[in-house]
């Protein structure tokens, strides 16, 4: 609870200080919070409608898209997507694999549909450092959807804008895992041919336990999903019930609303993108100017993530890395080394979600510069 702590955690992580204060303030007001109100009470129904409206406003979500608050995190959507868009297990879906999370998504989907992959792993090292070209040749025309992850949280690869599909593949809806970059750049919902976009809340927009799933309404409708799709995962069921088919994550929905109100006040998604560019540039500039003291795995600057900056200290030198982390910690900077479900990463990682201010990113950049000067 040290107010000086700067949290670079890859998620769950801190929300912007004004949002955290607004959450705390809920408990000082008379009456009940959304933690203790029926989800069918008029007060909550109004809060839900206001939250959806704010999400639509900030992210420019058109009326022909449905906004759902789903359960089961990003992993829940790894299963829900094929279960909703592929009626039969023989239906084809194409997955772009450019990092650990898209690989995980494809693995889960292969239980429910026939997965084809466009894989960008380096054939020798197996590492993900690029984004593959999407062509007529590698996209099966019969795909029910084309899946990609717009920010690979572990590998540090981000698409600043979504790729355009070849003309002959434009009938295929895109499915986007935007778990770690949602709200930080504009989305051209129609122009980008989005079918489904989901984001687990725990990085940029809230806390774990809630996932935002936005789906184009023509993909809804009886008889389109697999008969095995569980009700809690069924987009049509949840849309028809107005997000109240079962008990939604009421408090988390309120938090998303507070976060969206903050984004709106701070200039919306364009201003958020400008802040993300400033924060990440500060770190990449220090890394690039360090004569190899720091290195980052993604050399293509057009793909370097603004959300998660992976870097190592002197080629991953253990003693120096530990010293770096201890000194950073002594200055209140935490969350730079975390475990992933994919094993111990080779790299430290500075995650720069909405909870990290520009000034805080500059503090880390200045520390990195000083540390390099002292230890090069
Ligand atoms: N996709 C991406 C891009 C992620 O970063 C994560 C979580 N780190 C997930 C999916 C998985 O989300 P969850 O843990 O909510 O299932």
Automatic annotation (TrEMBL):
Keywords: Amino-acid biosynthesis, Aminotransferase, Cytoplasm, Pyridoxal phosphate, Pyridoxine biosynthesis, Serine biosynthesis, Transferase. It comes from the Bacteria. Coiled coil: none annotated. It is found in: Cytoplasm. It catalyses: 4-(phosphooxy)-L-threonine + 2-oxoglutarate = (R)-3-hydroxy-2-oxo-4-phosphooxybutanoate + L-glutamate; O-phospho-L-serine + 2-oxoglutarate = 3-phosphooxypyruvate + L-glutamate. One of its GO terms (molecular function) is pyridoxal phosphate binding. Its cofactor is pyridoxal 5'-phosphate. This is Phosphoserine aminotransferase. The gene is serC. PANTHER family: PHOSPHOSERINE AMINOTRANSFERASE. Residues 6-360 form the Aminotransferase class V domain. Pyridoxal 5'-phosphate binds at residues 101, 153, 177, 246-247.
């Amino acid at each position: 609870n040290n107010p000086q702590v700067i949290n670079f955690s890859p998620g769950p992580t801190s929300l912007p200080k004004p949002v955290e204060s607004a959450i705390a303030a809920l408990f000082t007001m008379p009456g009940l919070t959304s933690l203790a109100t029926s989800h069918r009470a008029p007060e909550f129904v109004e809060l839900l409608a206001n939250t959806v409206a704010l999400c639509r406003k900030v992210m420019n979500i058109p009326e022909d898209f449905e906004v759902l608050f789903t359960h089961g995190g990003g992993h829940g959507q790894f299963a829900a997507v094929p279960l909703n868009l592929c009626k039969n297990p023989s239906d084809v879906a194409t997955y772009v694999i450019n990092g650990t999370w898209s690989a995980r998504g494809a693995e889960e989907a292969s239980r429910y549909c026939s997965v084809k992959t466009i894989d960008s792993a380096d054939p020798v090292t197996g590492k993900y450092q690029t984004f593959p070209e999407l062509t007529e040749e590698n996209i099966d025309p019969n795909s029910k959807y084309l899946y990609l992850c717009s920010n690979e949280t572990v590998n540090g690869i981000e698409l600043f804008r979504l790729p355009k599909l070849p003309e002959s593949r434009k009938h295929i809806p895109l499915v986007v895992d935007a778990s770690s970059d949602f709200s930080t750049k504009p989305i051209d919902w129609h122009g980008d041919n989005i079918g489904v976009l989901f984001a687990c809340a725990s990085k940029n927009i809230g806390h774990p336990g809630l996932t935002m799933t936005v789906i184009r309404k023509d993909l809804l409708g009886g008889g389109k999903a697999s008969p095995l799709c569980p009700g809690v995962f069924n987009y049509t069921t949840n849309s028809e019930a107005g997000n109240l088919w079962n008990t939604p994550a009421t408090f988390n929905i309120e938090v998303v609303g507070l976060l969206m109100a903050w984004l709106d006040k701070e200039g919306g998604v364009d201003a958020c993108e400008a802040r993300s560019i400033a924060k990440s540039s500060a770190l990449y500039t220090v890394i690039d100017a360090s004569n190899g003291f720091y290195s980052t795995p993604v050399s293509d600057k057009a793909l370097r993530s603004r959300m998660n900056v992976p870097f190592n200290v002197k080629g991953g030198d253990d003693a120096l890395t530990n010293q770096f982390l201890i000194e950073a910690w002594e200055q209140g900077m935490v969350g730079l080394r975390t475990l992933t479900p994919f094993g111990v990463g080779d790299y430290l990682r500075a995650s720069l979600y909405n909870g990290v201010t520009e000034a805080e990113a500059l503090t880390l950049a200045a520390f990195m510069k000083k540390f390099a000067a002292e230890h090069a």
